[in-house]
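Researcher: Re-running this chain for the archive, since the previous output was lost when a drive failed. Same request as before.
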Amino acid sequence: MKRLSNGLLALALLLAWGEPHYELYAATTLTRIPDRATHIIYRDTDGSYKAVRTSDGKVLLYHAQDASFVINGLLGGLGPSLYYSPSAANPRFREGRKIVLNEGVYNLYNTVVIPPNQDLIFEADRVIFNAVPGFVNSDIIRIDSSMNSKFTLGIVVSNGDGNTCVRVKPYGQGPDDMVVFTTSEIYIEAVVGSGNGLVVDGRKGAVEFTDMTVREVNLYGNRSDDIGIHVLVPASDRIIRGNTVTVKRVNQTPEVLRIEPSGNIRSNRFILNMTDAESASVTDFNDTSNNTIIRY
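Model: Regenerated structure tokens:
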């Protein structure tokens, strides 16, 4: 997997501090079709975003400003509203679909919602997801029920308080009609800005047996509830178990990990590189024997 350069990370920091600076990044055109991709989204030379079906090159959606409109339109199966709805007649992906976002800055005015899926490959590792100023108290990217899927995300930038960069929250019926996020992989290049980084949210369905990696957590908001990795589930029949969460680097973030009280968060492994943030707190409200936390 390719890594974003230091220059792109610096650009993400600029985006987090002020007005959208997407004009600093050269517009890109679609020059290649990634292996096995069924759809690709890219930013054209005129600054607009396009979703293309690779089988015939047909442009499916077009919008001049809001990348989330184009992404959600494609992910939601092109319903009348162009957005995914849990009440849609066929809200799930066909098995084996691969969606690729071409390299560039994607300005988001709304939450990107990845609906229930199975065997999906969502490839966006060289993308900066920029939540524009005014985007507050919301999820930037939210992933619903999943089985055997792989998500690679670039840098997710929050410009507003109360945002969550990436939320894993199964809440719609997915594989085998279950509300569950299981046996999948998530890779995030960086979560940057103000708000929460990765939230593992089991309030509506189980999250289990999944590998999640965040290469860098860099949250510098002043809110006491800005958390790098936040894990929560009610003390009921929901469960978060058997997952491995790895943070390669923590920078500036005051609280890198919080595990909320629940006997149903267990047998998880958290691996945290805190070399650059030795004073960052780790809070586990559970019996510490329920989960393994490795700090180095």
